[in-house]
Design brief:
This is NitT/TauT family transport system ATP-binding protein. By secondary structure, the protein is α/β, with parallel strands linked by helices. The relative contact order is 0.19. The strands form 2 sheets. It has a 6-stranded mixed beta sheet with strand order 6-7-8-3-9-10, with helices on both faces. The chain is built from 8 helices and 10 strands. The longest helix has 18 residues, at 181-198. Helix 2 packs across helix 3. It starts with 17 loop residues before the first strand and ends in a 5-residue tail after the last helix.
């Protein structure tokens, strides 16, 4: 079985990094009531990489927003690093589908926006930004503006910005969904390396079965709306993963086929 990296980030708490218990979410309007999530219980240990897979509209993104404190559950509770989530959290990094960079700021200044908003020490933040740019292959592009970067490079900037304050938990909402297949594979490999090197706990929402298996230490499968966890499947692959090797591994094939069968039948069993 895959083991989490034994780093500082992976050992900041003796309890779960993320825990959700009996969560449900309902959205109400004057005309209707929508049940987005029901009976969600999930425990994520420090240093785990959990892929969340399910049909469109099943509430995957809402799940991340609950952990971030951006959505309040209707019933149940969520905790982050041992503390109940009751408001927006500063212990996380959050990456969305779009990089959402400021067009008038270069790469380094976009990354350092995180430091400005949090009031971090400027010199330390600058050193951390330089380290992250080197880690993600952005060295030499410090002053490039977003329109001068490819989509993949923009998401690397977004990743650096999210990791600048060294959050113990990183939430990722379909961050590579709009990228071409080759760029996506490259960034998947880089993300695996960064996860191993930092020990950050990661929750990834994706519609890609291959991505979910390649990156995850386990895959949480959600049903169609109202979303609930129907299976939790461990990923029996080594922590360090090379794309070509994983794609040729029979363990990958077995798990991907099982997930494909579940999602093809509506993930309701």
């Amino acid at each position: 079985m895959t083991t989490a990296p034994s780093t500082v980030a992976a050992t900041r708490t003796t309890g779960p990094a993320v825990e959700m218990t009996d969560l449900s979410v309902q959205f109400r309007s004057k005309r209707s009531r929508t049940v987005a999530l029901t009976d969600i219980t999930m425990r994520v240990e420090p240093g785990e990489f959990v892929s969340i897979l399910g049909p469109s509209g099943c509430g995957k993104s809402t799940l991340l927003k609950i952990v971030a404190g951006l959505v309040r559950p209707t019933t149940g509770s969520a905790s982050l690093m041992g503390q109940q989530v009751t408001r927006p959290q500063d212990k996380i990094g959050f990456i969305f589908q779009r990089a959402a960079l400021l067009e008038w700021r270069g790469v380094r200044k976009n990354i350092l926006l995180q430091a400005e908003m949090r009031g971090l020490d400027r010199k330390e933040a600058g050193r951390r930004a330089d380290q992250l740019m080197e880690m993600t292959g952005l060295t030499g592009f410090e002053n490039a503006l977003p329109h001068e970067l490819s989509g993949g490079m923009q998401q690397r900037v977004s990743l650096c910005r999210a990791l600048l304050h060294q959050p113990p938990v990183l939430l990722m909402d379909e961050p590579f969904g709009a990228l071409d297949a080759l760029t996506r594979e490259t960034l998947n490999t880089e993300l695996n390396r960064i996860w191993r090197e930092t020990g950050t706990t990661i929750l990834l929402v994706t519609h890609s079965i291959a991505e979910a298996v390649f990156l995850g230490t386990r895959v949480e499968v959600m049903s169609a709306r109202p979303g609930r966890i129907v299976r939790s499947l461990p990923v029996d692959l080594p922590a360090e993963r090379v794309y070509a090797d994983v794609m040729a591994d029979e363990r990958f094939d077995r798990l991907a086929a099982e997930l494909r069968g579940m999602l093809g039948s509506g993930a309701n069993h």
